[in-house]
Amino acid sequence: MCPIFSDNSRMNAALEKPPAARAAPPAWAPPPASLQLDFLGMKFASPIVLLSGCVGFGEEYTRVAGFSNRDVGAICLKGTTGKARLGNKPHRVFETPMGMLNAIGLQNPGVDVVVREILPTLDFSETRFIANASGSTIEEYIEVVSKFDDSPIDAIEINISCPNVKEGGVQFGNSPEMSARVVEACRKVTKKPLITKLSPNQTDIQLNARLCIEAGTNGLAVINTMTGMAIDTRTGKPVIGNRQGGLSGPAIKPIALLKTAQVAEVARPHGVPIIGQGGIVCANDAIEFLLAGATAVGVGTALFYDPLVCPKINRGIAEYLAARGHASLAALAAQ
After folding, report:
1. Choosing from 2, 76, 162, 212, which is the catalytic residue?
2. Which of 32, 49, 243, 290 has the fewest CB neighbours in a 10 Å radius?
3. Total domains in the fold of the chain
4. Exposure string for 81-96, b = 16+ CB within 10 A, e = fewer
5. At what angle do helices 309-323 and 283-292 cross, to 10 degrees?
6. Domain presence at residue 283
7. In this structure, what DSSP letter does residue 117 have?
8. What contacts 115, CB < 8 A, 6 or more positions away?
């Protein structure tokens, strides 16, 4: 168990320390060279990818002293739709034991604003930036992906965990055939690397992965959040305004790890890399995902508890490699 999440009392005590009691962040140093890798033609300084929805449009954590986008290999921007969305009614976020429920509802300004006003403000010399394309119809996915194709974005993540309004609200990602249709449509309108984010809330994730690969995805992100719920016993009503939300954090790590290993069995023969994600809060967690078959690892909820966790994860992975005489991450993939 990673110390940061060993129990809620320790976690809360750390958060309640007055600012003066917290150590000043150390001077910035680049990630160790042993962590560099190639991911779909993109040069990553670290295997860490900051997950969509956790860092806004790439600028939110840059206001935190000691935080640097240069500590990570890539940043997935907030989910973006064709038109602006206000998102769900509150409450949108609720802390659970060893995790967090969220139902933001894809609040965003729309793809035109993101491409025209937000992307020009990002420093592409710091890290790689990956857009997150979302939609309620295949036509909306096509619109968003085609507009990101004509932008400086490095790659596009397809968020298929969206309700399909033309198919009775069933999530695209819970149907392998529907997932593949979205990927195939997006593949036709962009030459940028496509990364499909797979849902754990489905019967056969291996079939979904295989069909998405056949449809043209270049990479896979495993997994998205688990569906969950919390009820306020005082009112008898769900805490989340949307009734249900996505569960993230350490509580889902064993599930995410298994799904990553299962998808790796399908993806490895095709040379399709995986971003393994779900509950990673320390180096040991990240190493488990790398050993399970991931090429890179996603970090999200952990940032809410420790915004400076990424350098610690980098350091821990580098020490693990050095202790075993490995010069690079490729050695883990060979095990």
Report:
1. 162
2. 243
3. 1
4. bbeebeebeebbebeb
5. 60
6. yes
7. I
8. 147, 148, 150, 151
* SS3 of the chain: helix, strand, coil, percent, to 5: 40, 20, 40
CA gap 42, 129 in Å, rounded? 10
Domain assignment present for 98: no
Query: Smallest Cα–Cα separation from 193: which of 154, 145, 161, 147?
Result: 154
Does residue 94 sit within a domain? no
Q: Give the pair of three-digit tokens for residue 306.
A: 């420790």
pLDDT digits (tens, 9 = 90+) for 205-257: 999 999 999 999 999 999 999 999 999 999 999 999 999 999 999 999 999 99
pLDDT for 27 equals 79
Q: How confident is the model at residue 51 (pLDDT cuts 50, 70, 90)?
A: very high
**Average pLDDT over the chain, rounded to an integer:** 92
**What tokens appear for 76 in the block?**
């997935």
User: Domain span at residue 142?
Assistant: 31-85+106-226+248-333
Whole-model pTM above 0.85? yes
Is 162 one of the catalytic residues? yes
Q: What percent of the chain has pLDDT over 70?
A: 92
Nearest to 78 by CA among 155, 134, 12: 134
Whether 242 maps to a domain, the answer reads no
Q: How far apart are CA 296 and CA 286, in angstroms?
A: 9
Indicate the pairing of strand 194-198 with strand 37-39.
unpaired
Q: What is the mean pLDDT of residues 287-299?
A: 98
CATH number at residue 190: 3.20.20.70
Residue 184 CA to residue 188 CA, distance in Å, equals: 7
Displacement of CA 144 from its chain's centroid (Å) = 19
CA angle 247, 80, 129 (to 5 degrees): 90
**Is the dihedral angle over the CA atoms 135, 141, 146, 149 positive or is it negative?**
positive
